[in-house]
Design goal:
Layout lengths: L1 H35 L18 H8 L5 H30 L7 H13 L2 H12 L6 H8 L11 H29 L3 H9 L4 H29 L3 H7 L13 H10 L4 H29 L1
Helix pairs in contact: 1-12, 2-12, 3-7, 3-9, 4-7, 5-10, 7-9, 7-10, 11-12
Length: 297
């Protein structure tokens, strides 16, 4: 009897140390963040902070001008535009690469992969200072030589948003192209030959053969890209608010907005509430995604 009880308890003892580490690294920060979100902790109330209930959460949803709601709307637009453009452009380039008889495919694929292989920090700084800088950036130098005025690429909200969008597309497209191109390589050529016999044109073959066959193959990559884009931090931060000094434009996503409140304005209670809200949003999106995948199966 004692031996049986030891056999039952033994495995739990072996994994107890792992659970302890997980608890310290994962669960404790989450619990602590939730607790802090109900306080007024900031740089001025570091030790003497007090409980303020749901005030931080109410602030997040009631401050409309430049607050969390504006950042959330901007994040949704950012995600939709990025995902739509990536899918359309990646599909087009993949179809071109898949063209029979195209010379230099290996060279084209290598060049297309370079932005994806380059570290984000390096890419963002190249674009920020090499291309978008007001005085010596390449784009403004070209505009001046053409007799046009300089553009503040990162100084106004809309232009800065478009600039960040372009840089993110430049970096993310290679991965999506790789997924689409791999899917195209797996499509049986017999489908197209049969369609040609039936008199189908290129557009009909794309709509009724290519897209339906590609959909289950690239859907995981599309979903993953959507999550990564929704949680985007590095591009917006490096392009518009690196070292805590903004370029003049407000392009905050929900992640950079939470970061700004935590590490620039040092409003830890409010930023903790924002982190909890973001965590809940991501959990809901994850559950909806899993549910849709089950329905698809």
């Amino acid at each position: 009897m004692k031996q049986n009880s030891k056999q039952k308890v033994g495995p739990y003892l072996y994994i107890s140390s792992a659970w302890l580490i997980i608890g310290i690294i994962v669960f404790f920060p989450i619990i602590y963040t939730v607790a802090i979100s109900f306080t007024n902790m900031n740089i001025w109330h570091w030790k003497d902070y007090r409980f303020i209930g749901f005030a931080n959460y109410l602030k997040a949803f009631t401050v409309l001008d430049g607050g969390f709601v504006a950042a959330l709307i901007r994040t949704i637009i950012w995600t939709i535009l990025n995902l739509t453009l990536q899918i359309v452009i990646a599909l087009g380039i993949s179809l071109l690469l898949n063209t029979e008889g195209l010379r230099g495919k290996g060279v084209y694929k290598t060049l297309l992969m370079l932005p994806w292989a380059m570290p984000t920090y390096i890419s963002a700084l190249i674009w920020k200072f090499g291309m978008f800088q007001n005085d010596f950036g390449l784009l403004n130098q070209v505009l001046v030589k053409l007799g046009l005025g300089k553009v503040g690429w990162l100084n106004t909200d809309l232009i800065a948003f478009i600039s960040c969008l372009f840089v993110n597309l430049w970096m993310a497209l290679p991965y999506m192209i790789l997924m689409f191109y791999g899917g195209l390589q797996g499509i049986d050529k017999g489908f197209y030959e049969s369609a040609e016999i039936e008199g189908a044109n290129k557009w009909q073959k794309l709509i009724y053969i290519t897209v339906p066959v590609l959909k289950p193959l690239v859907m995981p990559a599309i979903i993953m890209t959507a999550f990564v884009t929704f949680k985007q931090f590095d591009i917006v931060y490096l392009m518009t608010m690196q070292t805590g000094a903004k370029t003049g434009a407000d392009v905050n996503t929900i992640i950079t907005y939470a970061y700004e409140n935590a590490f620039i304005t040092n409003n830890y209670g409010y930023s903790s509430a924002l982190s909890v809200i973001i965590f809940i949003i991501i959990v809901i999106l994850t559950l909806l995604n899993q549910r849709s995948l089950r329905k698809g199966d």
